[in-house]
Amino acid sequence: MSEANAPAARAAAEAVAFIPGFSAVSERYDVALCDVWGVVHNGLAAYPGASDALTRFRRAGGTVILVSNAPRPGVKVMDQLDRLGVPRTAYDDVVTSGDLTRMQVETRISEPVFHIGPERDRPIFDGLPVRFATAEDAAYVICSGLWDDRAETPDDYRPLFARLQARDLPMICANPDIVVDVGGQLIYCAGALAALYEEMGGEATYMGKPHRPVYEEALGRAARIRGAKIPTARVIAIGDAIRTDIAGARGIGADALFIAKGIHAEELRLDGSGLDPAVAGPWFEGQAHRPTAAMELLAW
């Protein structure tokens, strides 16, 4: 077995610990990289227990960086958190895939771009001298989501993608999530479009979780806050998605706390009686990436 594959192999062999609260493991860590949608809120309302747990962790000396695949700058996510009632005592900073996407746009500022996504994602480009173009005239594509994620599906984009792929336009995906849970309804995200574009022969680059750059940015900010680099053994990632949150944590060698009442809630048959290890245990065994610990909702 190669050294590069050893962390993943060890993670796969570990048994998942079912814990009653974050306090059961929090003393092991200095930094928590916490997902936002599905952990801190559900798109409609904040989870008070999650804010309380993160606030308590910070009061005990921990640092919390919220790491989101939101295709908007972190400052805009902070505004949303304020509106939903998530207190700023719950986190130190916010890093988003939108932040990394904006960095990419800045490096290509002289090139015309075709944007796929709703108007609410336009803050990615705020303050930048961006030249927007049509699919026929653009040099590259920024995909932040579906234009109408309540009515469309990825299949609606096949004709457009055929035109883009015929021109060999590279796509930058501003949100690698496939779906997001909005008040109990699963909505398609930009990751579903990027996956289809690749399936059709196009080239896609992903800006958020589970890919390393967003974690490097988050850990860099945590190091600046704490005044020192943090060993990954003292880092825990918290999230509700195996494909992004858990895979990303394992990819950087960090522990992971899985929150069950998110996009996988139906698969885990959550019915209000709590997370059942008899159901969840075999389910974790079938996943490509396993967390260190699991609980239904983030709480202290």
List keywords for this structure.
Rossmann fold; 300 residues; disordered N terminus; four-stranded parallel beta sheet; 9 helices; alpha/beta; seven-stranded parallel beta sheet
In short:
With about 300 residues, the chain is α/β, with parallel strands linked by helices. Helix content is about 30%, strand content about 15%. The two termini are about 40 Å apart.
Task: Give a topology summary.
Layout: H1 6-13, E1 17-18, E2 31-34, H2 48-59, E3 63-68, H3 74-84, E4 93-96, H4 97-107, E5 113-116, E6 140-143, H5 158-166, E7 171-173, E8 179-182, E9 185-188, H6 190-199, E10 204-206, H7 212-226, E11 235-239, H8 242-251, E12 255-259, H9 277-285, E13 293-295
Parallel strand pairs: 1-13, 2-3, 2-11, 3-4, 5-6, 6-7, 7-10, 11-12, 12-13
Antiparallel strand pairs: 8-9
